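Same chain as my last thread, 326 residues:
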Amino acid sequence: MSTAATPPASAPAAPAPDSTGKPGQAVFALRVVREDGSEFSGERRFDPTQQDARDIVFDLQLREGGPQPTKDEMDLYAAIGRVHDVLTELYPSSADGSEKRFRQHFVSLFYLARLALEGDSLDRGKTRGGRLAVELARNELKRIEDELIDDEEGRIKNQHLRELALWGTRFSVPLALAYLLLQTSRSGDLLHRLLSSLQIYPSVMANYLVLWVGCFVGVGLSYAYRKPRLALEDLVRLDADRLNVPTRLALAGLSTMLLVMLSAFGVFDITIGASSKLSSLSVDGQGSAMLAFAVGAICGISELALSGALSGKLKSVIPGGKSAPP
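reply #2:
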């Protein structure tokens, strides 16, 4: 979506009823252009059904002493642009099969924008009639948004869950293999001697490997729980922090491990239920793989609050420490 300013005309257009039904003059003139911004000729400028039409140009026709767009009109213009931006990102022209899905929403959006901001035109933009009331236009725009969400919500959610599961599996398989190797090796083996020289207990390391796996499972559950219904922007931007899936999983795993380690070393204490202290996960021979998995899953489900929880705990033990914003 783009905006262009039209120079003052020598003969202003005839007044037309504005969006409130009172006589006035529309300050917007709409046309469609190609994806690269190149123009169409003749009446094709007003035809959103043609395959090459991918963008809407809003000409602002501002004249000295003439009418100015109202706040409601500018808000509606911004809202239409928001829907259009989601459309173009959701249905790129390079993607196979996207043209039909893009076109049906784009056509509805263009004609709604024209009726609300420019006015009804029986002869391709030369004579402007009355305009649709802004409140009615908002309702229709909401209907277009809901239709778009209904069409794509299931596909987007399932696609993201599959991506979380895929990356979680990629990260978990080597961790699970390392856990199996640690648990089946015997005291005195080369691996045990190497870890002992590094002051690492094999059973403790195994617990932390399972902790990571549980965290990855929790992150997937977190998305499924907190997104029962997607908003418009969620179709193209799943979370406000804009992290991709591998980065999200890695940060959640690191935060979980750090939180548990600091608790285990007595910097602060975290308990699960009434008596299960996380310090047991860092004591050789006393840790529990099932507890480690459960703690990791709980932290993964609460991944969005992990940074705040960690900084909040540190604030209690570090003078002058500040909590991270929620």
